[in-house]
Amino acid sequence: MVYQFLYWIGGILFLFIYFLPTIVGLIRRNLMPIALINLFMGWTIIGWVIAIVWANSADPKTAIVPQNPETPKPSLTDELEKLAQLKERGILTDSEFEEQKRKILNAA
């Protein structure tokens, strides 16, 4: 009785592992080609590996590309304030301050 239960559990576990590429393909991408390779070629191990790799590979049409929103450009006032702070700290000389200020104002 216990052995029969273990056979059932083992069989279910085997089927789950065998059809894992199909399950992943169902969730992620092309189900039918992956399922057919898995069903007919999965027993060869190489077919199973091909199916699992294909199921896990990114589909170029639906690949998720992270969108990096552009950081908002600091306002003219913010840039001038930062420049003034650098001058106050002694990091910029008067001539460097004027040059940078001119660049900021010309870019605006």
UniProtKB/TrEMBL annotation:
Domain of life: Bacteria
UniProt organism field: Xanthocytophaga flava
Descriptive protein name: Superinfection immunity protein
InterPro entries in the record: Phage_imm (IPR016410), SHOCT (IPR018649)
Pfam families membership: Imm_superinfect, SHOCT
Domain SHOCT stretches: 78-105
Bilayer-crossing regions: 6-27, 34-55
UniProt keyword list: Membrane, Transmembrane, Transmembrane helix
